Amino acid sequence: MAVEYLGLSSVNGPFVVLEGVQGASFDEVVEITSTGNDGLQEKKLGRVVEINDDKAVIQVFEKTENLSLQNTHTRFTGRPMEIGLSESLLGRTFNGIGEPIDNLGEIVAEKKADVNGKPLNPVRREYPRNYIRTGISAIDGLTTLIRGQKLPIFSGNGLPHDQLAAQIVRQASLGDNSDEKFAIVFAAMGVKYDVAEYFKSTFEESGVSDHVVMFLNLANDPVVERLITPKVALTVAEYLAFEKNMHILVILTDMTSFAEAMREVSSSKGEIPSRKGYPGYLYSELATIYERAGIVEGVDGSVTQIPILTMPNDDITHPIPDLTGYITEGQIVLDRELNGKSVYPPINVLPSLSRLMKDGIGEGYTRADHQDVANQLFASYAKVGDARALASVIGEDELSPLDKKYLEFGKAFEAHFVGQGQDENRTIQETLDIGWKLLHMLPREELDRVNTKILEQYYPAEEKEQQPA
User: Where is the ATPase F1/V1/A1 complex alpha/beta subunit nucleotide-binding domain (predicted)?
Assistant: First the structure.
């Protein structure tokens, strides 16, 4: 039952305090109506974040500067924050709390759902299988994204993670031969206006907007709105996946903005800070978001996540990437040195990892030689690092012929396998063929990570004699 109160006890940043409250619930949605000096009424939304006896602390999703202590009406709705759900969400653009901002009118909802969601029952989870193709060789070939996985991208300020996110949205698919339904939920938090416009125009021009649901929280939007944006996006994703049997890829950028919003709000509440000033519950908050990915037994759909986060000062031990690494199943790391060489996307494959990759590739999924090619490319590129380190000490001219071959392989690998155009959409077969072409630069006896039968098929023994000395 909705209850309305007149007046506020205090206003502190994004929080208002109301005393004499009865029957309020944690996370309950509150409607706040204020009357300005000009007599015009303004409505704001908030949610209850703390209850202490008859005192309720309300987090307001908009600015609180114009709120009057005497002339403000606060209405407790008796329900948590909800979003209307329908398949007509596809192709639409919303703000951070799920309100349409594309001038196409309100959504006619089939149902409403609590944005806070529920964790997937571990007993009903199915092990992730099969892959999602991004068209990017460094991801598809070496850190394959599996349906139901959560695979973050660790980036840094100034690195092209926005372009990479847009390319993934444009190119992502379930593969060439799949007839299953696929869609993308894209949520941006704390982005500048020009970045938001870049995402919108890119999706429209490439013709993928009709299967993308977009949530945009801009840098000048209220900070507390950022805390709701990923939850709203994931609620939509779960509905489309588990009730409409679609395979949904969720891209969340930038989780660092989400964590910093949490730090700011926590500081306003006077909570005791933990590492780097972040609240002690940062881990559990990140886990409640990341763990909403997966496959449910008996349902055809799946939710796959790619959270993108910028590492402050490129520090991978910073609390945000550090805690994210504990929860997720691998990571894709963008490298500043590769970016300086004009390699796009600048993915450093050595620290990158997909822990579920082995179960969604190979015969029946991608191609029988996929795992062997990936293993060999990893091993060979690791030796490139050793050769480069040695060359920096004794000079490139003093290297052995084999080490020189590895240097050549390293340059070609970065230029032609990792590097590709922003509009270049490669199939799995093209990616693996490029991998074999690069491996042909090395002597056959160096390919010790490839099964003999597969090696004979793609690098026959007679080719060894044709290799240049």
Answer: 135-354
